[in-house]
Design a protein that fits this description.
Blueprint (H helix, E strand, L loop, with lengths): L9 H52 L7 E8 L2 E9 L42 E4 L5 E4 H9 L1
Antiparallel strand pairs: 1-2, 1-3, 3-4
Helix pairs in contact: 1-2
Length: 152
């Protein structure tokens, strides 16, 4: 007697669906963790690039005057540039730091103002990218690095 069987039985179909669901349940968290790690890495890299840019501008324009300067950046986390900079007299308490709405020096650009002009991050959207360089030309504060170190 020949058994004419076409297609899957209910049990076979259920087993295949369960296996696919298990693979998806494992793959989605792994993928989301990968994306999150990449976002944090881009923010760290851009914060380092911003430090280099601020340090270069400081050495070119403010090193001889021996003053502390803070820099605010604009752009997204793939390309940030100095938006404005101002003298910094706040000591070591960076929690209350705030940038002026316009550039306090004539040697830098004022590419915009307000929240729309601050540097954007896929992970740290609410935090401005601010770099403070002290009188000796050392970077003493980086707002994105500080947050990434605290949060992760």
């Amino acid at each position: 007697m020949k058994l004419d069987r076409k297609g899957f039985t209910k049990f076979e179909l259920t087993a295949v669906i369960i296996m696919i669901a298990i693979v998806i349940a494992i793959a989605i968290p792994v993928w989301l963790h990968f994306v999150e790690t990449e976002r944090r890495a881009m923010d760290r890299l851009e914060s380092i690039n911003a430090e280099t840019e601020a340090h270069t501008e400081y050495m070119l324009s403010h090193w001889q005057s021996g003053e502390a300067v803070m820099y605010m950046f604009t752009g997204n986390n793939e390309l940030c540039q100095i938006l404005r900079h101002a003298p910094y007299n706040g000591g070591n308490d960076f929690s209350l730091i705030s940038m002026p709405v316009e550039d306090k020096y004539s040697d830098g650009g004022n590419n915009g103002s307000g929240l729309e002009a601050k540097a954007r991050s896929k992970k740290l959207q609410e935090i401005s990218l601010i770099i403070v360089i002290d009188k000796n030309g050392e970077v003493v504060y980086n707002s994105w690095k500080e947050r990434l170190a605290k949060k992760y």
